[in-house]
TrEMBL record:
Alphabetical list of PANTHER family matching this protein: ALCOHOL DEHYDROGENASE RELATED, RETICULON-4-INTERACTING PROTEIN 1, MITOCHONDRIAL
GO MF terms, alphabetically ordered: oxidoreductase activity
Enoyl reductase (ER) domain residues: 12-301
Taxonomic path: Bacteria, Bacillati, Actinomycetota, Actinomycetes, Mycobacteriales
Protein name as catalogued: NADPH:quinone reductase
Superkingdom of the source species: Bacteria
Amino acid sequence: MQAIVATERAAGVGGLSLADVPYPHAAENDVIVRVHAAGFTPGELDWPATWTDRSGRDRSPSVPGHEVSGVVAELGYGTTGLTVGQRVFGMTDRARNGSLAEYVAVEARNLAPLSADITHTVAAALPISGLTAWQGLFDHARLVAGQTILIHGAAGAVGSIAVQLAREAGARVIGSGRTEHRDTVLGLDADEFLDLQQDQLHDVGHVDVVFDVIGGELLDASAALVRPGGTLVSVAQPPRVRPEDARTIFFVVEPDRSGLAVLERRLREGRLRPILGATCSLAEVPTAFDPARRGRGKTIVAIANAD
């Protein structure tokens, strides 16, 4: 089968190529998914798990991409809960070969059923971004109705989902971004937009939650905005500045079938929409990874045409 392979860490995007690789092996409780659409995270070539397995052993060349939507092609020994021919979507393990391939082996528990009226292209944009937003807001920040939340990077893949989920939960949402992101963020029904290029961060006042996907000095400065009893959550890096009498949390998203099912239902009912960007083929993936060529919205890789 064909897949995108990453050959060596030092080569970065230049080390990506389309190649013939062996068909994946279905271990116990695995399924083999015929990939119809896949998503990737631009920074994953820097993830340690892209290059080493859980024991620290080199596993290059590796197949990147860890968001998948497709059809179950094969069940591993002992796999239950899914059937051959079923439409599914979800996350693949970071320490195993990923979804930028014609077929991928995935633990069944990391996948959820996908309704027939949701295209694979849309579904592939949701697993990592959607679960990151959900877990950050509700598992870690414990966001509830009536609270005020500041979401940094509100026009991005994670931030845009977080804005929609927070608004539906009854929170007052302030979304931050660059000047050109204003219409996008307000179009997601955020209550206010914070222009990081023109506005002053301290003008926001105190908030119950800061949800950060950017890190660095912006994350440091945001600590002063969190009121006592609030929460500063980041997926970019561990917070270096701790707000007084508040919690600080850094987390990495985890696969969760029940969470995927909740997101899928919102998507099906029109209560959630990922911001989609370009769609490309497997052969075009090396170009899509290049930061200089990346456009707005989530880039999706179309691999098999099921829609």
